[in-house]
Write a structure and sequence with these properties.
Elements (H helix, E strand, L loop, with lengths): L19 H6 L5 H9 L7 E4 L2 E4 L5 H17 L4 E4 L15 E5 L15 E5 L4 H13 L4 E6 L4 E9 L2 E8 L4 E2 L9 E2 L9
Parallel strand pairs: 5-6
Antiparallel strand pairs: 1-2, 3-4, 4-5, 6-7, 7-8, 9-10
Length: about 200
């Protein structure tokens, strides 16, 4: 039986974590176990490991894909020679293995033939219907020491810029509107108007 189809799987936005009795019954899974069960076909590929719990990933709308693809194309053209861009690929953290829409990681693809990256200079999530989970991921990324996290919010045409991770939280969080500009140390040549992340009719 596939664990991804079992009744114990949690879905983004579920309130199960908020119920103490439910939390007490959740059996946390190590990253090694998650990998092993995945290799055996017991966990669906459309999942992430978050805090040791297997979570079903939401399907992506055309708008979600459009925004992520547009931004990935822009970043890929300006990312530095000692970094490369990964799209919807795992990052291995302490007890989690999220798959952000975009991550700029050090090195080259050859560095990750036997393992997933544990570091990233920039991570990006597009939050159309997954805002609650993507906000929780800010804590994961801050704990990992990732210097910058972008949370793209198409429903309000804004981007939340999370920076300066300390003690598991980002100390600086700024909301940028459509008429403001995004820059990142991960790709210093990039200057991007927030409005350009969204189609005119979004």
């Amino acid at each position: 039986m596939s664990l991804a189809n079992s009744s114990t799987n949690l879905h983004p936005g579920d309130d199960a974590f908020a119920v103490p009795e439910v939390r007490a019954q959740i059996h946390r899974m190590s990253i090694d176990t998650y990998h092993r069960l995945g290799e055996q076909g017991m966990i669906d590929e459309r999942t992430e490991l978050i805090r040791g719990v297997v979570i079903d990933k939401m399907s992506k709308s055309p708008l979600h894909v459009w925004i992520a693809t547009q931004l990935a194309d822009l970043l890929r053209d300006v990312v530095g020679p000692n970094f490369y861009l990964r799209a919807e690929q795992p990052l291995t953290l302490c007890d989690s293995e999220p798959e952000p829409d975009i991550a700029i990681v050090p090195g080259s693809p050859n560095d990750y033939r036997a393992r997933h990256p544990i570091q990233a200079n920039l991570v990006v999530e597009v939050a159309l219907s997954s805002e609650k989970l993507d906000r929780e991921k800010a804590y994961l990324y801050a704990e990992a020491g990732f210097p910058e996290y972008w949370l793209i919010l198409p429903n309000t045409r804004t981007v939340e810029l999370h920076q300066d991770p300390k003690a598991g939280v980002y100390k600086t969080v700024v909301s940028l509107g459509a008429d403001q500009t995004l820059t990142t140390q991960a790709a210093p040549e990039l200057t991007l108007r927030v409005a350009d992340l969204f189609p005119p009719d979004a």
